[in-house]
Design goal:
With 153 residues, the chain is mainly alpha-helical. It has one domain. The chain has six helices and four strands; from the N terminus they run αβαααβαββα. It has a two-stranded parallel sheet. Strands 3-4 form a two-stranded antiparallel ribbon. The longest helix is centred in the middle third of the chain and has 26 residues.
Length: 153
């Protein structure tokens, strides 16, 4: 959809930037690093060191970004990979903080509550995407009630 809309606008004579963006924060990357390096807790992460942990996360992002570039090009999508953005880039993060400051200065930021999916294993809130990824029904021996999984047939 993104390619169709931007391609159509380009064909109608509009200048359309074709930047590709990479979401570099979040559990999928951390989960992969934890699995590779057998990290089981925040203590293990601290022993590895924040600088080293972040470097490992960056390496995975860069590896996947090259794989995505090949795939997207094979689809024939018009994208400028040379001028992409990654959420781990300082310029990107600073632009987000600058934007937040503008909203905050206009008194448009408020504190509220919302029910969110939470991972007790990772000790963090999950995005809807993360909550729905690789979902499996399990029974928890700590719970008083278990819900059986119905099998086909």
């Amino acid at each position: 959809m993104q390619d169709v809309v931007t391609r159509y606008a380009t064909m109608k004579g509009h200048h359309v930037e074709r930047k590709f963006g990479w979401d570099c924060h979040g559990l999928p990357i951390e989960f992969e690093i934890d699995k590779i390096h057998q990290i089981k807790s925040s203590v293990d992460r601290e022993e590895l060191g924040v600088r080293r942990y972040n470097a490992l996360c960056r390496e995975i992002v860069m590896r996947y970004s090259k794989e995505w570039e090949k795939t997207i090009n094979r689809f024939g999508r018009w994208i400028d990979f040379e001028d992409d953005y990654k959420t781990m880039d300082k310029d990107y993060m600073e632009s987000v903080w600058w934007t937040f400051k503008q909203i905050y200065s206009k008194d448009l930021v408020y504190r509220g509550t919302k029910i969110m999916p939470f991972s007790t294993a990772c000790n963090t809130v999950l995005s809807n995407f993360e909550a729905g990824s690789n979902y499996k029904d399990v029974s928890d021996p700590a719970c008083f009630v278990t819900f059986p999984v119905l099998e086909d047939g």
